[in-house]
Design brief:
By secondary structure, this protein is mainly α. It contains 13 helices and two strands, in the order αβααααααααααααβ. Helix 5 crosses helix 6, helix 10 packs across helix 11 and helix 12 runs antiparallel to helix 13. The radius of gyration is 19 Å and the shape is globular.
């Protein structure tokens, strides 16, 4: 274990970070929009599938908002692995290669154990939050939370005033390390021949070294995802792929991994 962590630290040490101004998230979002415009098909497919999943979830748990609240916020935790194929699309566009459906399919083949392992970890984190959120709301809300208005009335505006704060605090305690562990990890694993823990260490280094910029980027991702979900999830088919493509450009701006062999 010690040897593997030493190897991971050595690999991570070969990767350099680039300092960027606080205005940079706007550049990443514009670049994400351009990638989506150039190759909309894969993005629309991913966005439509995310919308379909959300719609089925809404229909199946329409009167169980105590479950939906955790499920929709937990989606933010697993979104990076869901967007793997869109990172591959942005990578191909940046390299001037043709982009087709074959590239999308190959991105999901189970031939990358590091990506598969990290996806499993994100899935476990998302499931853990859903269960934690549901347990907290059902155990401490003064009445059943079956609708969005129940959530607002009984949780957000609860007379005691601590349940919503506790829910947010628990969510932040889980989301912050997951974001730090994943914000650059999947694009780096996709782009370079690097170990899983080395990629996670690079991602953490970036968050620790550039805390204000990365907090701003996290706020952009959460805010725009919430905006996409607000009108019956109708914004997901467009905003989700734009954010995924933008995340690739964030990785490209922040990470200099030229010392690490590139994946073909």
């Amino acid at each position: 274990m010690a040897a593997s962590m030493k190897t991971a630290a050595e690999q991570a040490g070969a990767v350099r970070l680039r300092v960027q101004p606080l205005s940079r998230p706007g550049v990443w979002l514009r670049a994400g929009w351009q990638d989506f415009r150039h190759c909309p098909g894969p993005g629309l497919l991913h966005g439509a599938l995310a919308w379909l999943f959300g719609f089925v979830l809404l229909q199946g748990a329409a009167d169980r908002f105590w479950l939906l609240a955790g499920a929709f916020t937990g989606f933010l935790l697993v979104a990076p692995i869901v967007a793997t194929a869109l990172y591959a699309v942005s990578r191909a566009l940046q390299q001037g290669r043709s982009v087709g459906w074959r590239l999308v399919v190959e991105s999901w083949r189970p031939n990358h154990p590091n990506l598969m392992a990290f996806g499993l970890l994100l899935g476990l984190a998302g499931t853990g939050w859903v269960l934690t959120s549901a347990a907290l709301i059902t155990a401490w809300a003064p009445a059943p939370v079956n609708s969005p208005m129940d959530f607002v009335r009984l949780v957000v505006l609860a007379q005691d005033g601590w349940l919503f704060e506790a829910w947010l605090l628990l969510g932040a305690v889980l989301a912050a390390p997951v974001f730090a562990s994943s914000v650059l990890t999947i694009p780096l694993l996709l782009d370079r021949r690097i170990g899983l823990w080395a990629a996670v260490l690079v991602s953490w280094r970036c968050v620790v070294d550039l805390p204000v910029l990365m907090a701003l980027w996290a706020a952009c991702l959460m805010g725009l995802t919430a905006l996409a979900m607000a009108p019956a999830l109708l914004g997901l088919p467009v905003l989700l792929p734009i954010l995924a493509h933008a995340s690739w450009h964030a990785y490209q701006d922040l990470v200099d991994a030229s010392a690490v062999p590139q994946r073909t």
